[in-house]
Amino acid sequence: MSTFASSQKGGHPPTRARSPGASESRRVVTLRGSRRAHAAQRAFESRAAGHDALKEALKSRSRPAAIRLHALAERAANYLAQGKRGMARKDYERILAEDSTYQGVRERLAELADSEANPT
């Protein structure tokens, strides 16, 4: 037995480093795709959980106005993230009906109106 073979574990020569083949490339792409899908699922679940929490905050009209208005603004942002522009607009309009000085709501409504008038 040669000295090289006896110095190796099990007597086998060292394996060569291979360049990634087609199957390994597919595995990497699939892994990246599954990571994206997982991230999208987490984002969806996060929005859904956030929406449920906001629904609970808005359940009672006896809550302080600041809490209700903040919850409406957050829910409107959540609706926008989901692409539900009409629902977001309704929440922004509810905020304005209760407090016409609420910061940023008029601008967001104007942006919504512009985006609905000029879809890209």
Commentary on this structure:
The chain is an all-alpha fold and 120 residues long. It has one domain: Serine Threonine Protein Phosphatase 5, Tetratricopeptide repeat. Helices cover 72% and strands 0% of the residues. It contains five helices and no strands. The chain has helices spanning 3-7, 22-58, 65-81, 85-98, 105-117. Helix 2 packs antiparallel against helix 3 (65-81), helix 3 runs antiparallel to helix 4 (85-98) and helix 4 (85-98) packs antiparallel against helix 5. 11% of the residues are buried. Residues 25-31 have low confidence and may be disordered.
CATH architecture field: Alpha Horseshoe
Low-confidence stretches: 25-31
pLDDT averaged residue by residue? 75
Can you tell me the number of structural domains?
Answer: 1
The percent range for helix content is over 70%
In short:
With 120 residues, the chain is mainly α.
Keywords:
Serine Threonine Protein Phosphatase 5, Tetratricopeptide repeat, mainly alpha, 120 residues, flat, single chain, 0% strand
List the helices and strands and how they pair.
Blueprint lengths: L2 H5 L14 H37 L6 H17 L3 H14 L6 H13 L3
Helix pairs in contact: 2-3, 3-4, 4-5
